[in-house]
Please model this.
Amino acid sequence: MQFTSEERLDDGVLEREFTLGEIPGILWTPAPAPTSAPTSGPAPAPAPLILLGPPPLGLRRAYPRLLARARRSAADGFATATIELPGRGDRPRWPAAEQALADLRRAMEAGEPVGDEIIDALILPLVDKAVPEWQAALDALLSLPEIGGPVGYSGGVISIGTRLAVVEPRISAAVLFAGSFVPRAMFEEARQVTIPLHVLLQWDDEGNDRQAALDLFDAFGSKEKTLHANMGGHTGVPQFAGDAAARFFIRHLK
Model:
């Protein structure tokens, strides 16, 4: 991991951009707690970490949303980090993924149902590439002295979060956004998830298969799982829904 920029934001949060090989990312760490103790005293305890799964827009376009989530998490004492998805942003183009996305748009514009073949071609290779990258990023992040466990995962493509919840034992809890297509193969993986889950669903999400989202929630094997459904479209998540997700992480990571 190499840090490429550093900026202290107006609320004291430290924002650092980094690269991990060819993968760009951003790390936010909370402002130091005010103290009257001598500067020679013990260093602050490492902050718990939340991995912020980005939407498939590219980090630059998604930055305002990610920053808002990072600021809220920092106020609760969490460090947060995100990395660019394969084929997005400034990363090398991925022709197969771009073709799958074009097929998806063509079907939706024609008012046709989005078939399993399109969903599988769009999502499954993305999961296969992104999850090992998240694990490599987690290795690097947890090596920093200011970052500690436990670790949570928040948002992003729900199939990536589902796979990570199965294969990554360092993740203790997850907030998942039910706003992306779900391949049928992910339902079997969902049954293997055991960590606490908080799932956000926008009831009128124009690009989401609501029934598939409900079926996926039903499939999750976690003993503790909460579905937080709200009226409105994809970007209309109300503030109080974010507050509930924040309280979920406070319960499980602090």
Notes: The first strand starts at residue 2 and ends at 8. The chain has a mean pLDDT of 90. The two ends are 26 Å apart (CA to CA).
